[in-house]
Structures are given as structure tokens and as C-alpha cells.
Design brief:
2 domains
Length: 208
């Protein structure tokens, strides 16, 4: 996706109302019913995608901070959680020579350990980012400082990694939520159960 602000003809400091007005102008300009150019349909889709991103506060912040344009919605979290459960199951099954063990309970414990590691890494990164901010020198606007630029680049890199780790935590919590379907830890997960994808997401607060 190209710069969504440029697509809408607005600027990064635009208010919600300004973004909405810019979207209406751009949508009117590129609507296939009003614009006969061969690029109209493609541009109209780009305008819609840009507005979808900038009208969502979380996605806009992710773009402003890290230039992340991916949409990670509830369906995607569910799909990734499903993949995580399958990956853990296959690893456990292979490690146990495909013998029957209480897989649901084992997967839950594995998810718990992954969450512990995830949260420890998240806390370490948060501390690292705060430490880097403290040593970053204040540079007057319009001036450049190589040391400050280097630190700011490292802060952005760490912040992007933190963003991905937090998404990973949501995926793990969603996997725990999916396993709530199974009351008996001796059960084998039924990977063909499509009702997993329709369960309401609660992002279970998993207490270790």
C-alpha cells in the first residue's frame, strides 16, 4: 500500500474530520460512475483501503509509528491461533512417537509457557526502549545529530518488534480461548471443527 495520506490527499497531522473530508473528495474523484479513466476502479479501491486504515485509530498509530499497513483483524487472529495449536500438536505428537497422550492439556501447558516467554520478552523490550529514550539527546528542530538519529532508529526498530510481540500474545490468548471448547484434557483437538472460527473472541486473560 502506498502512503495512505497521499492517497487521500491529506497530511499526517490531519484530524479525523479532515481525513473524512479528504476521503469523500478522493472517493468522489475516483468513483467509477463519475470517472471514466481506466485507473478509476483501482484508484477507488486504494482510496477505500487508505481510509479504512486511517479511520481505525490503532491501525493509524501502527502506520504512523512503524509504517505497518497489515490489517490484523479478529478472523486473522483466529486463523493464526488455529495454526499455532496445530503446530504445537504436531510437535508434541512427534516428540511422543505419535502415542496417545492428553494432548489438550499438553497444548494448554505449552501455550502457557509460550505466553510466559512472550511477556518476559515484551517487558525486556519495554525497558530497553525507555532506557534508549533517556539517553537520546534533545536536538533542536531542523538540526541533525548522528548519535540521536542512530538511537531513534534503534527505538523504532525495537518498537516495531514490540508491536509484533504484542500481536503474538493476542494470538496465544486466542488459542487458549479456542481450547476452552475442550473440558476434557484427554481429548484430541478436532481440527476440522469450523465452529472454532465462529466463537466470540474474548482474548482470555491467561493467568500464569
Amino acid at each position: 500500500m502506498q502512503n495512505p495520506y497521499e492517497t487521500l490527499g491529506t497530511h499526517p497531522d490531519a484530524s479525523e474530520e479532515e481525513i473524512k473530508k479528504a476521503y469523500r473528495r478522493a472517493a468522489s474523484q475516483w468513483h467509477p460512475d463519475r470517472n471514466s479513466s481506466i485507473d478509476a476502479s483501482a484508484m477507488f479501491r486504494k482510496v477505500q483501503e487508505a481510509y479504512e486504515l486511517l479511520s481505525d485509530p490503532d491501525r493509524r498509530k501502527a502506520y504512523d509509528d512503524f509504517k505497518v499497513t497489515d490489517r490484523f483483524d479478529d478472523k486473522m487472529f483466529t486463523e493464526e491461533a488455529h495454526k499455532a495449536i496445530i503446530a504445537i500438536f504436531l510437535k508434541l505428537a512427534e516428540g511422543n512417537n505419535w502415542k496417545k497422550i492428553p494432548y489438550v492439556g499438553a497444548i494448554r501447558r505449552n501455550l502457557g509457557e509460550s505466553l510466559r516467554q512472550n511477556r518476559a520478552e515484551s517487558a525486556t523490550l519495554e525497558q530497553k526502549i525507555e532506557s534508549m529514550k533517556m539517553v537520546s539527546p534533545a536536538v533542536p528542530e531542523g538540526e541533525q545529530d548522528l548519535f540521536s538519529d542512530a538511537i531513534q532508529a534503534e527505538i523504532k526498530k525495537a518498537a516495531l518488534h514490540l508491536f509484533k510481540i504484542r500481536n503474538g500474545e493476542k494470538i496465544l490468548c486466542r488459542a487458549v480461548d479456542l481450547l476452552a471448547n475442550y473440558k476434557d484434557e484427554e481429548q484430541l483437538p478436532d481440527f476440522n471443527k469450523h465452529d472454532w472460527a465462529t466463537r466470540p473472541t474474548t482474548y482470555t486473560i491467561f493467568t500464569i
